[in-house]
Design goal:
The structure is a single chain. This protein is of the alpha/beta class and 387 residues long. The chain has two domains: 256 residues, Aspartate Aminotransferase, domain 2; 124 residues, Aspartate Aminotransferase, domain 1 (Alpha-Beta Complex). Helices cover 37% and strands 13% of the residues. A seven-stranded mixed β-sheet has the order 1-9-8-5-4-2-3. Bound molecules: pyridoxal-5'-phosphate (PLP). The site of pyridoxal-5'-phosphate has 14 residues, from helix 3 and helix 4.
Length: 387
């Protein structure tokens, strides 16, 4: 693919940082992980950051730390990567979805409120809600937080797309309106550690629980132990945890990448602006941006106005792919996945999400994308739409 939909940017400084870590005393559980955690916490203005081996693992541990288990409900957006919902199933909980807002494509607070009112009557209120900041644009967190206060559920922000973005002029990840925020550092995301993720929180107890579960449920901290230590070698397993640790190599890469985070997001905005101008007269919807947020612009999703086009989305997708342009679709509604059908979901359950899915295409967007590449995408799109 000559122009992928997303791509990491690796500099010589990144390579040097990883080689330094490789030549150091620790490949894992050395000093780089806490350095990286501290740097993220400072950037986001959050008390605690726990680096984890992926956002998927971070979502799993966050759900466990909040006590999610069998009999509980977790709600999220149908327009997300499957990991946003699977974390509930890992804990033995039941999963349901809240339809999206037709403009932002994020979980709609009005639909949420309607669903909460019905759930309260049937005694099936969710324990956890996972709003997803799709494409890097923050959800309406104030409205969601107000509903959380009223109905008593916890909030995990899935900010896998959104590090470097802002909500009400404050960094996404500060957990002002949530219990925990999760980032992903997969290579297509805003900054990368190869595989990797993080959970952020201002709650020290939650942070300790996530850190414990990240490493087998084992503690070396005498204060956490439930029995007297036998001696200085002693560790205790006090819970059933996992090996979800990030390595020092990954953290070294992340720390180096973090230095360019603001620059990346600025460049993503500049490219998005160019798309906006060049596509202004095309029969499609460009990404709507709510004034409360500053998107990290992980994705630039256009929505074909199906009724105004003589060609359909699949045709456009195929024409662009034929020209080596790595368009993609984010996302197939989770409730329509075969695995989720066993829970009784069906087509028509979340009409806004399904209608979005039928019209959406993600155009290439990444910091090192050139103006020429962007122009090539626009010309190919014009041809594909037969304009
Ligand atoms: C990428 C992504 C994840 C999973 O991230 P990993 O780090 O690959 O586990 C979860 N949620 C969303 C919205 C994502 O885009």
């Amino acid at each position: 693919m000559t122009i992928p939909y997303g791509r990491q940017d690796i500099t010589q400084a990144d390579v040097d940082a990883v080689i330094d870590a490789l030549n150091s005393d620790f490949l894992t559980q050395g000093p780089m992980v806490p350095h990286f955690e501290k740097a993220i916490a400072e950037y986001c203005n959050t008390k605690h950051t726990i680096a984890i081996n992926s956002a998927t693992s971070a979502l799993h541990l966050s759900c466990l730390a909040l006590g999610l288990g069998p009999g509980d409900w977790l709600w999220t957006s149908p327009i997300s990567f499957v990991a946003s919902a699977n974390c509930g199933l890992y804990c033995g909980a039941k999963v349901d979805f809240v339809d999206i807002d037709p403009h932002t494509y994020n979980l709609c607070p009005k639909s949420l409120e309607r669903k909460l009112i019905a759930a309260e009557q049937s005694g099936q209120l969710p324990k956890i809600l996972i709003p997803v900041h799709l494409c890097g644009q923050p959800c309406d967190m104030q409205a969601i937080h107000t509903l959380a206060q009223k109905y008593g559920f916890k909030i995990i922000e899935d900010a896998s797309h959104a590090i470097g973005g802002k909500y009400l002029n404050a960094p996404i990840g500060n957990c002002r309106y949530s219990d925990i925020t999760v980032f992903s550092f997969h290579p297509v995301k805003i900054i990368t550690t190869a595989e990797g993720g993080a959970a952020l929180t201002n709650d020290t107890e939650l942070a300790n629980r996530i850190a414990l579960l990240r490493s087998h449920g084992i503690t070396r901290n005498a204060e956490q132990m439930t029995q007297e230590p036998d001696g200085p070698w002693y560790y205790q397993q006090i819970d059933l945890g996992y090996n979800y640790r990030m390595t020092d190599l990954q953290a070294a890469l992340g720390l180096s990448q973090l230095k360019r985070l603001d620059h990346y997001v600025t460049r993503r905005h500049a490219l998005a602006e160019q798309y906006n101008e060049l596509l202004a007269d095309f029969p499609l919807t460009i990404p709507y941006q709510h004034s409360d947020g500053y998107s990290a612009y992980h994705l630039y999703v256009i929505r074909l106005q199906q009724e105004k086009n003589i060609v359909n989305r699949k045709h456009v997708f195929e024409k662009l792919r034929e020209q080596d342009i790595g368009v993609n679709i984010h996302y197939i509604p989770i409730h329509t996945q075969p695995y989720y059908q066993r829970f009784g979901f069906k087509q028509g359950d979340f009409p806004q999400a399904e209608s979005y899915y039928n019209e959406a295409i993600s155009l290439p967007l990444y910091p090192k994308m050139t103006d020429e590449q962007l122009n090539k995408v626009v010309v190919a799109l014009q041809e594909a739409l037969q304009l």
